[in-house]
Amino acid sequence: MKLLPIFLLFFLAGSNFLQGQTIPKDQKATEDSSGLVSSFLLPTVAPLLLFDEEKVKEEKKEKKKKTRKNTFFGIKTQKGSIRRSLRGQEYLELFYYTGATWKSNPYLRDRYWYDPKERTIRTQGFVEGQGYLLHGPYQRLVNQVVVERGMFYYGSKHQTWLTFNGDNVLQDKAHFDEGWARESRITYFNTASRAIEKLTPIQYGLAEGNFYHFYENQQVAVTGEYRFGEKVGLWTEYWNTDNTKTIRKREIQYQEKPYTKNFRPYIQAEWDKEGKLIYRKE
Hints:
This protein is mainly beta. It has helices spanning 6-16, 53-64, and strands at residues 20-22, 36-37, 71-72, 75-76, 78-86, 89-98, 113-115, 120-122, 132-142, 145-153, 156-164, 170-177, 180-181, 185-190, 195-200, 202-203, 206-207, 209-214, 220-227, 230-238, 246-253, 266-271, 277-281. Strands 1, 2, 14, 15, 18, 19, 20, 21, 22 and 23 form a ten-stranded antiparallel beta sheet that branches. Strands 5, 6, 7, 8, 9, 10, 11, 12 and 13 form a nine-stranded antiparallel beta sheet that branches. The chain has a two-stranded antiparallel sheet with strand order 3-4.
């Protein structure tokens, strides 16, 4: 499988040869330079199914049933609000949250949670016991006018989300399934078995979020992040070990922020099939 165009690899390797260092084969790699990755740090295999149509049908049936107050998707929640004033504008967020445990989706980048200590909503750094996942209806108001509303499911955007301008005119409508935008692109090795090749999150027509490329045996091959349609941060390739372990093959550094001018991606490190470091850029 070609994980990157050949010309790009030659370009990246050549442009950084003088700045990096090759690790001698007999040199013992330090523990933190090992290519072996704990399976707890990233999903090692592709999800079996991204969008479950049957689940959507079941949710519609549940909506018709009479539910208890502050209970959403069968989970009891608490109501919260955050009010702020900034530059003459009044901002208000109305939401529900839960302390129920839930195994997070490892493929998603953003997980919305309420930080009671700072009284704010965050998308990163959630630690169970130190915050609460948003779960249920959400509204954001500016000067008492709703500018955004939607539904959360254990910290992930779910179902239909709407945004409005200050005159309450609809500006955008997006559909999510437990954090995944419905317009996300999925390519398959085999459509019959639903063996995923690439999983690209898309929002508003641009790649946005964590990208995954898998080998045909469904072991992870490449991971990285998109922001506003541009590759950002560290992208990692992995050796195909037939799902016995996860070993890094190569790390490529991209711009930290999208649309950064005059930035050229470069290879940061490489490992052999045993996970031993063979190159790292100084």
